[in-house]
Automatic annotation (TrEMBL):
GO terms for molecular function: metal ion binding; oxidoreductase activity. PROSITE patterns: FE2OG_OXY. Residues 220-320 form the Fe2OG dioxygenase domain. Its cofactor is Fe cation; L-ascorbate. Gene3D superfamilies: B-lactam Antibiotic, Isopenicillin N Synthase, Chain (2.60.120.330). Belongs to the iron/ascorbate-dependent oxidoreductase family. InterPro entries: DIOX_N, IPNS-like_FE2OG_OXY, IPNS-like_sf, Iron_ascorbate_oxido_reductase, Oxoglu/Fe-dep_dioxygenase_dom. Keywords: Iron, Metal-binding, Oxidoreductase. SUPFAM superfamilies: Clavaminate synthase-like. This is Fe2OG dioxygenase domain-containing protein. It comes from the Eukaryota.
Amino acid sequence: MARVEALSMSGLSVIPVEYVRSMDERQSLGDAYDQAAASWSTAGCQRIPIVNVAPFDGADPSSPASAAVVDAVRAAAEDWGVMHVAGHGIQDDLIDALRGAGMGFFGMPIADKEAYANNPAAGILEGYGSRLAGSAGEDGKREWEDYLFHQLHPDARADHARWPAHPPEYVPVTKSFGERVSELAARLLAILSLGLGVPAPTLERRLRLSDEEVAVEDDLLLKMKINYYPPCPQPELAVGVEAHTDVSALSFILTNGVPGLQVLNSAGAWVTARDEPGTLVVHVGDALEILSNGRYTSVLHRGLVNRRTVRISWVVFAEPPPDSVRLRPLPELLVNGAEPRFEPRTFRQHLENKVLKKKD
Ligand SMILES: O=C(O)CCC(=O)C(=O)O
């Protein structure tokens, strides 16, 4: 399988046809730096909300400081489905170390990274890969990126043999980051529950426990995907990650500071995410949209590429267990004649039905 990094390094000026997106999709593509400049300079341009969750006190959720956080997170999740989260409690040096470890892996020669190659055709999804876009069945288009994908948390589920042995700090640093993200996910789910007017533990319980409310072994599962987008000579024709919503409950994104992430706002315009130091981008995914009966929006987003710089993003998907939990709108929200907007389904069923669809 050809790696996009090798293509990029070959110095080609015209990209292979399988990376050229449809005419329709190309209308809104372009170099990520140009799109960022245009998006950020527009007078009155829309900006993804920044929410500081540090003042939220789980022991006193109705204090004015906690209530203000709940309100801000609720509004961002309803209006945008995405927010920059500040005050997340993950130390800067751990975040720097995570970035360093991922860059250390992608800095290795391609031949060395191949030792970790995945094989989706054989059902081996974890590892180093370059994939056909999700719409491959429809138009066979590829995405301009290579990636590393693996289970992250809980540790018992992670196969460290599939994690990079180089650099040596990759495993301990990435593992610690997973533990911190797991705590942050729990905190945000508590805030988001209160935003729906239900008790703080509700969303996490519904994502982790089966219908019978018996404690199942499964935790919220975290999966790590590091996207490596090499420079692209024709960014107006290609896309790094095509437009999609995440199937997860929540997704957490860090980058190397290079622009490329775009989200579709409620007016139907693509907004380029800024680099907001000290924050993590958090997306609402499909699982949370279903539980909230559509109150929280699973955000449509994509990754653009640019001509000059490598972009790297670290995405952690927080997902319910595949089979033991039935995702359905919270019964607490189905009052006063409110109809469920989603049919019950397991996470696996949702995933399988979604494969070729951007939003369902
Ligand atoms: O690179 C990004 O910022 C977003 C990547 C993404 O959406 C994905 O990998 O699913």
